[in-house]
Amino acid sequence: MAVEKIEVRDLRLSYGSREVLHGISFDVYENEIFAVIGPAQSGKTSLLRCINRTIDSVANAKVSGTIRVDGQNVRKIGHSFFRRLAGKRPPRFSDVFELRRAVGMVAPLPVGLPLSIYDNVAFAPRASGLTRRADLDTIVEECLRQAALWDEVKDRLHSLGTKLSGGQQQRLTIARALSHRPEVLCLDEFSIAIDPVTTMRIEDVLKELRSEITIILVTNLTQQARRLADRTMFLWNGDIVELDSNEVIFSDNPKDRRTYEYVNGIFG
Amino acid sequence: MLANEYAPDDMRFTQTPFGRRRELTERIAKSIFFLMAVAMIIPLVAIVGYLVLRAWPSLSLEFVLDVPRKGMTQGGIWPAFVGTVYLVVISLAVSAPIGVMAAVYLNEYAKDNWLNRTINLAVINLAGVPSIVHALFGLGAFVYAARFGYSILSASLTLAIMTLPVIIASTREALASVPMSFREACWNVGATRWQTIRAIVLPNSISGILTGVILQVSRAAGETAPIMFTGAVFFKAIERGNLFAYSLNEQCMALSMHLYTLTTQVPNVEDSIPYATAVVLLGSVLVVNATAIAFRVWLRARKKW
């Protein structure tokens, strides 16, 4: 039976006085593709940022509830010093940087770092202490291949990543997210800057990756969620409307009428 | 001429009264703005031209290298020139590292809390303090309290305090010009703040940071009040052409101070000498600024996004 990779319980998030997630609870199982759909402003991106703790850099964000990755509450990471002093079991993640390496993130807009293509992909492995050239070469090639970018850039690995086209930069971003061997990969609207053919190639890669990692796919394209996901969560205005397997969500009679209407484009 | 969108097809590119008026307004506006921009050159050309003209009889390399003679009424300005170099170099050697590191903290690490808001407020207010007040502070703090006496060290530290807030402000601006999305991309792959700063933020803001620091050279070189109270003297006998004539605990001469004494305190100075002193001060500052600009252009040509 499925093992819970991420458990979210009563997660509330507010920016200042505006609450954007109203206490949601759900599980993401190991090695599944978990899609999150929902209109703009429904809290999809904020949810992802809570999971990998990049929400920390938003000054007025306030989080409550628990998010467990492999059983460890990510909101308590960084306070593990006293646990260790007390001789308790060492935690799964000893700091947020370890968490972020385990939970990869691809942002909706492509960001090529102002480094060479090679250095873009090698950045994360280097940041975690890997320096052997041969290892880095292997990782760079493998990740660029997985992101369907290798053939286009293999002859100019040392030219600037920022000089690539928008779609290529987005695939570079995906390659970078894979470069630190995440166990969970969060994709936030990864396909908005990519042409349909390349999108298909990356989707094929994602289906292959499912055997190794867990994928959370935030998307506005309901058809993409239908094609790829095992289960889909419909998030609306910070509440879960419905969470079920794709057979139910994309059937003619999901539990909630709004799901049917949103999925079939007759919402509102 | 602009196309007339509302005219019939065959008339679209003919002139209408409204089109003519619009074109005229456009030209007038452009020429006014252009004139104002060009007017900026006039003061600079006038100042430099007048100074060089009046200074001409004295201007020579010999003038820079020679020491003042006959009660400062003749000779050169070497002690003052070297003194200014000492003051500028030492003050920036102190203020640049502190300022840049403080700015990195404020821009990259600081959260929005009362302590950091207080630091910000302090920086802004320190930048607004008149130089004569800095001078009094330097006198009290470095000359008396720290017992550095009237010395190059006291004067340099006073100048450093004076340039610090501006260096912090310009460095923060340079750091802020690096897009936030770069930082977020780095944090997303598990890089620490420092790894992000080291790999992405500093390499892409270094041109702005250095420009901000170098522009402070002209300020440190030009100020008279802070050094007059803390370490600059009327006259100091040193060996001609010797670059290492001063030691840190000595008093020194400085170009800005020298210019002031020549014009107000010394009778019967040869006419062209004060002007030549001003030309050397202005010239050295312009050379340093030009280097900064050239450096910036060179770095910007290598800009990566």
Rg of chain B from C-alpha positions?
26 Å
Distance between the termini of chain B: 36 Å
Write down the secondary-structure element order of chain A: EEEHEEHHEHHHHEHEHEEHH
Q: What is the general shape of chain A?
A: globular
Provide the CATH architecture of chain B.
Orthogonal Bundle
Main pleated-sheet profile of chain B: 2 strands, antiparallel
What is the succession of H and E elements of chain B? HHHEEHHHHHHHHH
Q: Tell me the number of structural domains of chain B.
A: 1
| Helix fraction of chain B by DSSP (H/I, runs of at least 4) | over 70%
Query: Helix count of chain B, per DSSP?
Result: 12
Query: What is the strand arrangement across the widest sheet of chain B?
Result: 1-2
Tell me the helix content of chain A: 25-40%
How would you sum up this structure, described in words?
- The complex is a heterodimer of chains A (268) and B (305).
- Chain A is an alpha/beta fold and 268 residues long.
- Chain A has one domain (4-263): Rossmann fold (3-Layer(aba) Sandwich), CATH 3.40.50.
- Chain A contains eleven helices and ten strands.
- In chain A, the strands form two sheets. Chain A has a six-stranded mixed sheet, with helices on both faces.
- The model of chain A has no long low-confidence stretch (mean pLDDT 86).
- Chain B is mostly helical and 305 residues long.
- Chain B contains twelve helices and two strands, in the order H-H-H-E-E-H-H-H-H-H-H-H-H-H.
- Chain B has a two-stranded antiparallel ribbon with strand order 1-2.
- In chain B, a hairpin with a 4-residue loop joins strand 1 and strand 2.
- In chain B, helix 2 (41-55) packs across helix 12, helix 6 (131-145) packs across helix 7 (152-176) and helix 7 (152-176) crosses helix 9.
- The radius of gyration of chain B is 26 Å and the shape is flat.
- The model of chain B has no long low-confidence stretch (mean pLDDT 87).
- The interface between A and B is medium-sized, with 29 and 20 residues.
